[in-house]
Amino acid sequence: MFILFKLLGNKRLFILLFSLIIFIGIMGITYLKRENPTWPEKFLNDSVSWVQGLFYKPASSISSFFEDLGKIDELYEENKVLKQTLAFYARDVARLNALEDENKRLKENLAFTERQKSRDNYTYRIARVVADSPDVYNATIKIDLGEKDGIEVDMAVVTVDGLVGRIERVTPFYSHVQLITELNNTSTRYKAIAATVEGKESDSFGTIENYDMSDGLLYMTKIKQSDPIQDGDVVVTSGLGGVFPEGLRIGTVKSSDVGEFGLTRTAKIEPFADFNHLKEVFVVEVPPLEGEE
């Protein structure tokens, strides 16, 4: 009793103790499982739940914030892996596209050689272009066939589309090809192309001596006035001149006009071959005539 009176004498301690008893009582009432609680119990239960909700929301937000901070390193590593995967994917797609393009070209090359077997008895040696000259006034490419492969100067070089040039210089393992886009009647390096019209019984004949870079056309000169050459005709090598063998496709006639002094005609020829970004070419080997071996 003495202790109780002493506690009552300390008002602050008494109030704190009383509040604690009330709080414990309220919590007990909150968790009572009764089927029909009284309205004071319902009121106290709802009030306590509301107060708990006020504290739960900010506590939950703070907990989620620190949980998200803990995941930053994990997200960083995951993002890094995804970036690497995307880079590998882009590289693989580019490689796949390159392989598909190469496969398409090789199929076209194979079909070309098969067609030539039924057309002439030339041997077409496929070669890969390993370099080209950046100088527009020195239109040459380098291929991976040379003396060791039996390649010789002045052999004709073609693509599946048409004539592109001739072998100009040979080393043991490589060869330099002079493109027909370098044809220039003022140069000492060019080799004029003796040409005719494919599929006509007439004696169409002319000489391709010049290439105009401004319009991308070859100029065929020394055509007779009586020659029936006309727009759309397919021009091929005639075999004369000892450089380019007979029957190699060059291009189509775009137009023809009266030549110099009005004695001959000149025709503009659009080449079949695409000289940009050459990948593979064929070196044409002509079998020796009887008695020349």
Characteristic terms for this protein:
3 helices; six-stranded antiparallel beta barrel; elongated; 293 residues; Thrombin, subunit H; transmembrane; alpha+beta; transmembrane helix
Write a short abstract of this structure:
This protein is an alpha+beta fold and 293 residues long. It has a domain of 164 residues: Thrombin, subunit H, CATH 2.40.10. The protein has three helices and twelve strands.
Strand and helix map with partners:
Elements: H1 2-9, H2 11-30, H3 39-117, E1 123-132, E2 140-143, E3 156-158, E4 163-170, E5 175-179, E6 193-197, E7 206-212, E8 217-224, E9 234-237, E10 249-258, E11 264-271, E12 280-285
Antiparallel strand pairs: 1-2, 1-12, 2-5, 3-4, 3-12, 4-5, 6-7, 6-9, 7-8, 8-11, 9-10, 10-11
Mean pLDDT across every amino acid position:
76
Task: Please bin the fraction of helical residues.
Answer: 25-40%
Shape: elongated
Q: Any idea of the CATH topology of the domain at 122-285?
A: Thrombin, subunit H
Number of helices: 3
Radius of gyration: 46 Å
Using the 3D structure, state the CATH architecture of the domain at 122-285: Beta Barrel
Number of strands: 12
Structural class: alpha+beta
The CATH superfamily name of the domain at 122-285 is: Rod shape-determining protein MreC, domain 2
The top level CATH class name of the domain at 122-285: Mainly Beta
Q: N-to-C terminal Cα separation, in Å?
A: 140 Å
H/E topology pattern:
HHHEEEEEEEEEEEE
Beta-strand content estimate: 25-35%
The order of strands across the largest sheet is 1-2-5-4-3-12
Which segments are poorly predicted (pLDDT under 50) over 5 or more consecutive residues? none
Q: Sketch the major β-sheet.
A: 6 strands, antiparallel, barrel
Domain Rod shape-determining protein MreC beta-barrel core: 129-285
Transmembrane segments: 12-32
Protein name: Cell shape-determining protein MreC
Function: Involved in formation and maintenance of cell shape.
